[in-house]
Automatic annotation (TrEMBL):
Gene3D superfamilies: 3.40.630.30. It comes from the Bacteria. Its EC number is 2.3.1.-. It holds the Pfam family Acetyltransf_1. The keyword Transferase applies. It comes from Pelagimonas phthalicica. This is Putative N-acetyltransferase YsnE. SUPFAM superfamilies: Acyl-CoA N-acyltransferases (Nat). Keywords: Acyltransferase, Transferase. Residues 6-156 form the N-acetyltransferase domain. InterPro entries: Acyl_CoA_acyltransferase, Bact_Acetyltransf, GNAT_dom. One of its GO terms (molecular function) is acyltransferase activity, transferring groups other than amino-acyl groups.
Amino acid sequence: MNQQTYFISQITESDDGVNALLARHHADMRAGSPEESCHVMTGDELRAAGAQVFALRDGDGQVQSIGALKPFGQAVELKSMHTAREARGLGYGRKMLAHLLQAAKDQGAQSAWLETGSQEAFAPARSLYHSAGFEICPPFGEYVEDPLSTFMTKRL
């Protein structure tokens, strides 16, 4: 894995590497949360909701991280942030988050929102979001209070 070089691009059509990582993300989320607390979306659901899907590829061209921006009024919701297990701890998630937030700003979004798990397995994700300036907030949009969810927001 060549981690010195990376590039992030928006995915506008089906991509095998992105689909594989989305499938792993979907399986992980479904395995760790009961259905009523699992808000993960498939690639088709993301596209149907008008979300922009992005992929971070390492210098060898392998998809190492994914993320999506789903329109939410004058804001965006971050969806499907996921880094491949073997690439965790290399900074790819932080790079993807920075890219998503900049893309949201460039599109005129005033804020970014997200839902993530409240379980221990999600502690690294919550820490990443907190370090990027996200703050805990009440449920937003169609979400409802759930002890297995943490809701966060950031002004852009």
